[in-house]
Amino acid sequence: MQRTGLFIERAGFLQRLNPLTKVTGVLLLIGATFLLPAPLTGAALLAGVLLPLAFVSLIGRRFLDILLKTLLPALISLVLVQGLFFPTSDPTTVAVGPLLFRRAGLQFALNTGSRLLVVAGAPLLLFQTTHPGTLVQGLIQSGMPRSIGYILLVALQLIPAISERAVGVAEAQRARGLETEGNVLQRIRGVLPLISPLIVGALVEAEARAIAIEARAFNAPGPKTWLRDIPDPRAEYAARIMMLAALGALIVWRIAWFFSG
Amino acid sequence: MTTSTTSQRSGLSSTALALIPIAIAINVALGQLVQSVLKLPIYLDSIGTVLVGVLLGPLAGAITGLLANVIWGLTLAPSALPFAAVAAVIGLMAGYAGQYGAIYSWWKMALAGVITGVVAAAISAPIATYVFGGVTGAGTDVLVAMFQNLGASVLGASFMQGAVSDPLDKTITYLIVWAIISALPKRLLARFGAADQ
Lengths: 261, 197
Fold this sequence. Notes:
The complex is a heterodimer. In chain A, 72% of the residues lie in helices and 3% in strands. Chain A has 10 helices and 2 strands; from the N terminus they run H-H-H-H-E-E-H-H-H-H-H-H. In chain A, helix 2 (19-35) packs parallel to helix 10, helix 3 packs antiparallel against helix 4 (60-85) and helix 7 runs antiparallel to helix 9 (191-215). By secondary structure, chain B is mostly helical. The longest helix of chain B has 30 residues, at 154-183. The interface between A and B is large, with 79 and 74 residues.
């Protein structure tokens, strides 16, 4: 079966926490990387917060693996493009082999790269340690519209099925002689026969699904019962309040610092 | 459009609730298919978003775009999350294009695609600059390097890169949606009505 989602079933530390606590933590971490001076903050949060959390949640290697796999192209591009072409009046350069890097550009790449690792890493850790169903239930119980939660969960379930159908359509059209190779113009002409069966099928399916939604009175008002309870100990509630207070304090401090020059 | 399908409470009809998840899955599946099978230099990852916007209006379009990027973040690449705002605006603009009646002629759809592309470039440039440092690891980074070498700032180069790639991508996306909707049976379209929300 094809895996959807980043969630890994383990009995670690973060997996036991309430999803809202983790969402609040992600907000605080991302806020801190933008409000505190780079590159130290990014590096410190990655090495001092994200990595230890990933390891006590028993997913350390998978976390590093996906973080690097998704960010490596961007990081390499960042060093090359900004290292070589960063607009600066500072003439200082650093020679690496035949390449002449600009120092200000490398500094910029270091600052942005360290921040990027936290901005992508914090949500990654949340998704790897939280089942999508639990995450959506937690968000709905704290006020997110039920319809948004429904859309997210159904889309997650549908992606493997639709991907499979897309590959099927591509193979069927190729068997009928569709060109999927050749020059760009030929390949652009191949787009429509691939896409239209997929979308027409989707619209027909959506009609059936809409009738099913109505038949089950999804949009009926009134409170709904949940199959599972997500534990929310008082300590975690307190932790959320403290994290939000810390984020607020950071913002106030940053504004004050900005106006004092 | 019949009122029996419209929920006053959530603002989303059951038709929208049924179509949006499928549109999100189409965004992801086609985005991958176009890159792996056809290997084209365009993304075509917002066909579902534009389709929902044109059929069901700006609100449904914006929700499709926003949640599609959240799903990208949840399943494949957390770095897609910062661009959710851009995807939401693309859906919103497709919704307005639908309300304006752009779907009835191909050149209005092409025009809507160009405008959407420019707006998308303008919104994604600051995100690309302040979160990613102007580059994303894709082939279009070469354009960023070129514009910076010609004297543009990081923000300026990001915008110019977007202004080159996005209008082309969005125009093709809108034209594909136009071609598909024009070919649909009337009975099926009646269910989705016009953009009347």
